[in-house]
Amino acid sequence: MKLYTKLLCAALLSVVVLSFFTGISCTLNPQGIHILNGDYTSPKLLSFDLLSENSASVRFSRSIILDEIQVENLTMKTNVDIEATDNGNGIWQINFTENMDCANFYTLEGNVKDEHGNSLYFKNKFQGYNSRVPQLQLNEIRTELSKPKCEFIELLILSDGNLGGMQIITASDGEEKSIILPPAEVKKGEFVVIHMRKLEEDCVNELDENTLISGGTESGAHRDLWIDNTSARIAKSDIIIVKDRFDGNIVDALIFRESSCQNWKNEYMNKCAQEVFQSGIWQGADEESAVCSDGLTVTRTLCRQDDSHSKNSWIVVATGKYSPGKENSKEPYVAK
Fold it and tell me: What is the pTM of this model?
């Protein structure tokens, strides 16, 4: 019996050493040791994309089997019936029995496994699909703070629609801190001011026809939205991008630099500049194509002057000519 134990220990040690140097896995069962070849890491969830109001695509790192999957409407606290179809190569299509409204938030939760039994539990929160994305453009930008006046991004709405799920990226802030807009109904011709900090208690998002409910500094008859944040979000040299949905198509963008800025501060900012240029929204990606942002203060903002997409369509306005929620000034700042 002792000899058998020694031989078994020696065999196990040999397998451990073999596994370490060759990447081979093994299992021990009542019938003995089985040597297994292949990848024994868990599959990964690579992406989740809404395709329409009632369908989505889920992509995994390899072909998987769905053990369990469910969708919950977090706003209504109800489950949503779904049908899941395997499209091969780790891609599954999810069809919902009800429309995923952009006014609601949902979770997709489930367990999957691959052909070797390696399993993955995942839970993904998402906002419903917006089929009424409005046409809009960036109209005014403030990069500076003087409490209680804070940085803002102003949008001019060009067609009726809903802002729900649209994404705003400020490249200096980083990829992880993009803003997902709430489901606000908007009309052609109105201004939307997105205040980049929430510094007062009465800063309320105006999501319906009533645009007079917010009492924060610089709120007014225009539509006010407030970001739940207290830190700087826009630099004097930056790239601002508006997309129709998370990781979607670019709707509008602005590239601006101080004259002292010769290179973007990190690779992500360079990536954003290239993405904007390649989309056709902006005429160039280098420092020569950027709007000059010299002279920006709390009362001197970047203001759009026409509908083109180039450095000549924006100016830094004169001192005191900032205008959140109103028509832009045409008077440029002139350094003394």
Answer: 0.80
